[in-house]
Amino acid sequence: MTESMTPTVAIIAPGNMGAAVAKRLTEHKVTVLTALIGRSEASLKRAQEAGMRGVEDRELAKADFVLSIVPPGDALTLAKRLAPILTQANTKPIYVECNAVSPQTMTTIADVIAPTGCAFVGAGIIGPPPKPGTTNTKFYAAGPSAKDFARLNDYGLTVRVLDGPLTAASALKMSYAGITKGFTALGAAMMLAAARGGSAQALQAELAESQPALLGYLTRMVPAMYSKSYRWVAEMNEISDFIGDDHAEHAMLEAAAGFYERIATDFDGGKQEIGAMDDFIAGAKK
Fold first, then answer.
1. pLDDT, position 3
2. What is the pTM of this model?
3. 8-164: which CATH topology?
4. Under a CB-based contact definition with an 8 Å cutoff, are residues 52 and 21 in contact?
5. Alpha helices in the chain (DSSP H)
């Protein structure tokens, strides 16, 4: 691929983030490949709406970039699945690991990809699935090939190259998500504790008086967390590993993972705790 040629990008998989990133690229005339075998009807619909082209796994290696955008717990499995195909490929794409994984996991994935001959970029996404006209979804990237990945700045993405080791973007993502998702877990847990303790209304009033910005943040972020909580379990565990078990705060993020696992079960079941949080938020908005 020369600098003047429009790249071809493979994105695995067409989830909410992957499909939105694909749509941003296809709007800029980029051909986006994906793997659709075994995917749900919802994924197939997202891929179609994003203009993605479904191909067999071996065809993914014909792309200039392979972007891994899957739940964090699936990132290493995907790398192992694609490694034999990438090894056999005559031309080598740049493999971009975009998932919310710890530097330790990022290094493990890089070690899986290294024997394939593909260049590797350690990346992390901060921001929501991109929507038309927005620029608040950023790909932070690190490693010797990060500047090559930054070519996609010309095709609608926002790629910021970091100095430092291959794991620099992973460390940034872990730190940022530990703050935002860790705080959301803490706030939601205390809403539930207040409701169990009979102090929900008093807590609402005190937060509104002394911490209105904090209350506003929680009333936005807690409801948005319900449907995503199942994906945040593995991410919290990755953040806990990033901190390291020789630091006491390691246990805080492990606890957040357990909290999100419980909320995911509640979301799929009776929604009792979700109902209690909704009641707290509704009371706070009165």
1. 59
2. 0.94
3. Rossmann fold (3.40.50)
4. no
5. 16-26, 41-50, 57-60, 75-88, 103-113, 146-149, 168-197, 200-210, 212-225, 229-243, 250-268, 272-284
